[in-house]
Design brief:
This protein is of the alpha/beta class and 238 residues long. The protein contains nine helices and ten strands. The two termini are 33 Å apart. Bound molecules: coenzyme A.
Length: 238
């Protein structure tokens, strides 16, 4: 699988790397990137060889500086956009990936950038990282789930602060608030992500995927149902 315009896809044995690749535009999320990611992730989802996926951004400045603002004025009508989303819902696809996702973040992680990272199960970042949600200041709502995914990680107060005031978080702040699991020097970031991915990939993949599902799905259930889900997933496979 190669030849994508905006994404690099690499497979290192059982670890897949998805690299956002528009460094000249700070890896801004464009329509083409949506289509490329949709194709890559659809293939990964059914690839039994892939046990863990690592997301990162090309270039030194950003993981992703949000939606491509240069495309804003050329966007299709809201009706058309909704129709496209219904048949090609990248965010639902992210949520449906059974494998663990690791985000290796650096530089600007804004708008859709932070939203992509929030679909990941583990976030590590270099100290130069800057998180932010500029949408409300631009007169729009985040369109890739941040109003729902951010509070599940940061809680109510931190999420509303970021969303309503446009507050940006430094790496240290993100670490203190639990938005990232670890800060790693920039030059070691990908090495660390690969090390984590390999560690997870060495475990029984069915158990790993069940653990992910139990936590992710369980978080949206009342505790009793969550415990039932855990018991069901803990049963040995027939
Ligand atoms: N969409 C399209 N292009 C973007 C972009 C975006 N979201 N973010 C950065 N770029 C492009 C710039 O247009 C510029 O390209 P150019 O050299 O061809 O003009 C290049 O990336 C570098 O950006 P620049 O603004 O010159 O760098 P900076 O270091 O001064 O500032 C940011 C970096 C990220 C603070 C600034 O680019 C920015 O605020 N971007 C928009 C963030 C945003 O609002 N995202 C939308 C969320 S919905």
């Amino acid at each position: 699988m190669d030849g994508f315009e905006t994404v690099i896809y690499e497979k290192h044995q059982s670890v897949a790397h998805v690299i956002l690749n528009r460094p000249q535009a700070f890896n801004a999320y464009s329509v083409q990137m949506r289509d490329d990611l949709y194709e890559v992730l659809s293939a990964i989802r059914i690839d039994d060889e892939v046990r863990v996926i690592v997301f990162s951004g090309a270039g030194e400045k950003a993981f992703c500086a949000g939606a491509d603002l240069k495309e804003f004025l050329t966007a299709p009508s809201a009706v058309k956009a909704r129709r496209i989303r219904a048949v090609r819902d990248l965010w639902k696809l992210f949520l449906s990936l059974p494998q663990p996702l690791i985000a290796a973040l650096h530089g600007y992680v804004l708008g859709s950038g932070i939203e992509i990272s929030l679909f990941c199960d583990i976030r590590i970042a270099s100290p130069d990282v800057v998180f932010g949600l500029p949408e409300v200041g631009l007169g729009i709502l985040p369109a890739a789930g941040a109003t729902q995914t951010l509070p599940r990680v940061l809680g109510l107060a931190g999420s509303l602060d970021m969303l309503l005031t446009g507050r940006r978080l430094t790496g240290q702040e993100a670490l203190a608030m639990g938005l990232v699991n670890q800060l790693v020097p920039r030059e070691k970031l990908m090495e660390k992500a690969e090390e984590m991915a390999k560690k997870i990939a060495a475990y029984n993949p069915a158990v790993v995927q069940n653990a992910k599902q139990a936590v992710r799905t369980g978080l949206d259930l009342p505790l009793e149902q969550g415990l039932e889900l855990e018991s069901r997933l803990a049963l040995p496979a027939k």
